[in-house]
Structure formats: C-alpha cells, structure tokens
Amino acid sequence: MDPVVATLVERSKWVHQVLRDEVRELTPEQLDFTPAPGTNSIAALIAHTVGSETELWSTVASAGFTRNRAGEFTTKGKTAAELIRLLDAADYMLDELAPRIDLNALAAVWQRPNGEAQTGAYWLINSFSHIREHMGHLQLTKQLFPDRFPGVARPY
C-alpha cells in the first residue's frame, strides 16, 4: 500500500477511535443534543463524518457509493452502540478501499457527485482534515453538556 494512503488510513482510524471513546457512555438524549440553533448533534456529526469519508474514499478508489447527505444531518434517536457500529464500518471501509488506491489514483483528478474535481491526494487529505474538524465539534458539544446535563463534566 502506498505509504501516504497507509498513513491516512492509520490517522483516520485514530479519529474513529477517539469518536468511539467520546460517545461510548452517552445517552440518546445526549447524542441528539444541539448546543444552539443551526448546530449539529453528536449523532449527526458522526453520521455526516462517516458519510463524507466514505464518499471521498469510494470516489478515489473507483468504488460505487450512494449517499444521503441531507439525511446525515437529521440523524436522531441513535444509541452509542449504533454510532460505534457506524465507526466500525468506516474502519472496514478503509481496509477495503485503501489497497485499491495507488500513486495513479492519488494523482488522477476525481469528480465528486457535487461536480467539484480535485486530485485523489487532495480528496483523501481533505477527508482527514474534515473528520478531525468534526471530532473537535463533537468535543466542543460535550464541553457544553454540564449546562444541559448536570453531572457530566469534560476536562478539556
């Protein structure tokens, strides 16, 4: 496997593990909490993270994937176990798709369903930075829990 791809897989799986650890003990009510109008819940952040990541990796690996992006943001009523299974599936997706991505795939220009075209390297680096960004959103949402869920403190 290309070393850049291998590194992106390893770092993406690390983010998935951090996300698993962050949600493991949360209730569905906490997972659906939004800190302010126009913000996303933890459940929606995880659904969106996995959806986006799968779309980008599938694009660069020339694998088919159909996504309901709008539906990701309406995710509600999920348990921590269900969200952890989504993250487990994302790990599996990386293991399946990464071996298909070589230097040619990284250098090739790939068009996403929204019409934007960039190199495979761009899309995979973008994917990693995107999931790290949402990891931070999730952690920030948890920092606001004590106001809504007394007794849940996060020492960040």
Account of the 3D structure:
- The chain has 156 residues and is mainly α.
- The chain has a single domain, classed as dinb family like domain (Four Helix Bundle (Hemerythrin (Met), subunit A)).
- Helices cover 64% and strands 4% of the residues.
- The protein has 8 helices and 2 strands.
- It has a two-stranded antiparallel ribbon.
- Strand 1 and strand 2 form a beta hairpin.
- Helix 1 packs antiparallel against helix 5, helix 3 packs parallel to helix 5 and helix 3 runs antiparallel to helix 7.
Summary of the model, kept short:
The protein is built from 8 helices and 2 strands; from the N terminus they run ααααααββαα. With 156 residues, it is mostly helical.
Mean pLDDT figure: 93
Order of helices and strands: HHHHHHEEHH
Supply the number of helical segments. 8
CATH architecture: Up-down Bundle
Q: In percent, how helical is the residue content?
A: 55-70%
**Shape descriptor:** elongated
Q: Any idea what the radius of gyration is?
A: 16 Å
- Kindly state the number of beta strands: 2
Indicate the structural class: mainly alpha
Largest sheet composition: 2 strands, antiparallel
Instruction: Tell me the fraction of residues in β-strands, as a range.
Output: under 5%
